[in-house]
Prior knowledge:
Number of helices: 3
Number of strands: 0
Structural class: mainly alpha
Largest sheet: none
Order of helices and strands: HHH
Helix content: 55-70%
Amino acid sequence: MAxxxxxxxxxxxxxxxxxxxxxxxxxxxxxxxxxxxxxxxIPAVCWxxxxxxxxxxxxxxxxxxxxxxAWMAVMYPIGWAISxxxxxxxxxxxxxxxxxxxxxxxYDPMRRRPNRKTGSHWIKRxxxxxxxRYFRQY
Length: 138
């Protein structure tokens, strides 16, 4: 199973949400570019694209699905890269150091370290007398 999947068959609700978020997305990009750069040329292009794409999307119903599928095709590589990058950061930035520290300090929560005094890794447990305990799973 992949971390992310491309949706090639959107539902009407997904198309509706996509249409509602299309213009604000480009509008926010324009605002961010204006805030960071100071020039009005690029934000004006972003706002024009926002208005044209929203108008086309809502006025020509046959364009809804192709626009959605094209957008997902363009954004898929970005989503793939971001998800794998975040997974790598979490794994190598958090899980690996915690595991190394646990090994360094000799903490073995699964009791995997071999014990030469016993012949087996079996852990003796007391038998359960009251089976009602199985129904309390909170």
